[in-house]
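We were asked to recover a plausible sequence for a given structure. The inputs and outputs are reproduced exactly as logged, with field labels preserved.

PROBLEM: sequence recovery
POSITIONS: 295
GIVEN STRUCTURE:
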């Protein structure tokens, strides 16, 4: 028969069995050598795990940084600025730019009504309309100057937004290609470092299982509340919008709402199944503590 991956529960708690087993090993001859050997194995496991974790983190990030700054950004800028005439990567960027221009116009108009920065341009005396033709011409000049000043401010803001969103489109394309290549690098490392990853997985599993039942229950509640809790939908919306904007994809609200309405529910079902099917067999005391904390 194949060896079972999950230790079966029995009448006697496993913690008592493990304690008795450690006590029995300490009484046997040569227990010092056994302790030294276990320490060496534990030390080797920690070193390999740290090295593997650093490799899986530093190498992809460094590759992404060097690739984007020295290859992808120059190539994308050359293509985007010379091979086509578009500024916006999608219509959602254009809508955001128009909204910013509208808010800027309202802000400038409000400042003209309330601010006395240049009273000669912004304040038109009421009595000017009742004076002779010379005074009327002065008033007309003030209106022309005011209108010209407004147009210059709006034009300057429009150019600023055009440069900003043009650069944002370039960065989005660069992020898309760079992240795709980084994913390939991570996949290669996972295949190439498979033995080290097995050791890392074993080390993390032992580290988690060595925590107290209260700590494990706290981490479990924290994770479930963040991912599938009552306030999590808004967090999912923000994260999904940032990811779509990072990759340059359209920020379709219908897609975002559909994702938020389905994925957390599926994730919550997976959590409950994992707790019932696996965690209940591995650590029943943790499950009992978890239910006591959420009630």
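RECOVERED SEQUENCE:
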């Amino acid at each position: 028969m194949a060896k079972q991956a999950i230790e079966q529960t029995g009448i006697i708690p496993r913690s008592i069995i493990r304690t008795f087993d450690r006590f029995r090993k300490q009484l046997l001859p040569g227990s010092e050598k056994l302790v030294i050997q276990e320490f060496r194995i534990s030390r080797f496991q920690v070193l390999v795990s740290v090295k593997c974790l650093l490799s899986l983190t530093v190498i992809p990030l460094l590759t992404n940084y060097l690739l984007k700054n020295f290859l992808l950004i120059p190539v994308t800028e050359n293509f985007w600025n010379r091979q086509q005439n578009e500024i916006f990567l999608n219509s959602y960027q254009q809508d955001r730019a128009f909204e910013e221009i509208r808010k800027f116009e309202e802000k400038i108009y409000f400042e003209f009504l309330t601010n006395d920065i240049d009273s000669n341009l912004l304040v038109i005396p009421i009595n000017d309309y009742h004076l002779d033709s010379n005074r009327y011409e002065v008033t007309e000049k003030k209106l022309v100057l005011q209108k010209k000043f407004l147009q210059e401010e709006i034009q300057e803001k429009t150019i600023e937004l055009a440069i900003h969103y043009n650069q944002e489109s370039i960065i989005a394309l660069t992020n898309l290609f760079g992240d795709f290549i980084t994913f390939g690098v991570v996949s290669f490392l996972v295949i190439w470092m498979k033995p080290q990853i097995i050791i890392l997985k074993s080390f993390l599993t032992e580290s988690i299982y060595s925590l107290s039942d209260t700590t494990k229950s706290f981490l479990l509640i924290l994770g479930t509340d963040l991912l599938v809790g009552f306030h999590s939908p808004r967090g999912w919306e923000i994260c999904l919008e940032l990811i779509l904007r990072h990759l340059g994809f359209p920020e379709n609200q219908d897609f975002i709402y559909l994702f938020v309405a389905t994925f957390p529910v599926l994730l919550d079902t997976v959590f409950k199944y994992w707790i019932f099917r696996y965690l209940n067999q591995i650590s029943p005391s943790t499950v009992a503590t978890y239910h006591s904390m959420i009630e």
